[in-house]
Specification:
It is a single chain. The protein starts with a helix and ends in a 6-residue tail after the last helix. Helix 4 runs antiparallel to helix 5. The protein is built from ten helices and no strands. 27% of the residues are buried. It is an all-alpha fold and 155 residues long.
């Protein structure tokens, strides 16, 4: 009987309304938002990612994913603003700078795209997206990209 009680209490017990009200819902929000995004339900993901920005722990990843959705929609300026918000708390995350390079490239600002790609590569030399964006920026600015194309043999 005691074993049954312990199993019931610790594993099968339903949460009370107070426990649900006081729980950390933000981790559930971020995981469901990624699922919405994967299912192609971008507006639902977009709305829920905004909810996740209210929590300190999820502020940067939520804004990063909002920027990804904005880029997919073609709204590059809004994506850059959201990437700046994401970088304000997590500036060393190379994916933020790599995505910023892609947005800058789409806006036609290849010099800024090159700067952002270089910052991403400085943070993470193995970041594929940053390397690709750097290569595109070098070609667009007319700089010699031959040395950069040869780096793929190093990896």
């Amino acid at each position: 009987f005691i074993l049954f009680f312990l199993v019931y209490f610790f594993f099968l017990k339903q949460k009370t309304a107070y426990e649900i009200k006081e729980c950390d819902w933000s981790s559930d929000v971020c995981s469901s938002d990624l699922a919405y995004q994967g299912l192609g339900k971008r507006q639902a993901a977009y709305d829920n990612f905004y909810r996740a920005t209210y929590t300190y722990d999820y502020y940067s990843p939520a804004y990063f994913n909002l920027a990804r959705i904005d880029l997919a929609r073609g709204d590059n300026l809004t994506a850059l603003a959201k990437l700046d918000d994401a970088a304000s708390q997590n500036g060393r995350f190379a994916e933020i700078n790599a995505l910023s390079a892609a947005a800058q490239r789409r806006l036609g600002d290849h010099v800024e795209a090159l700067v952002a790609a270089d910052k991403a590569i400085e943070s993470d030399p193995m970041n594929f997206m940053a390397g690709y964006e750097r290569l595109l920026a070098l070609k667009a600015t007319g700089q010699d990209a031959a040395g950069w194309e040869d780096r793929k043999s190093v990896v």
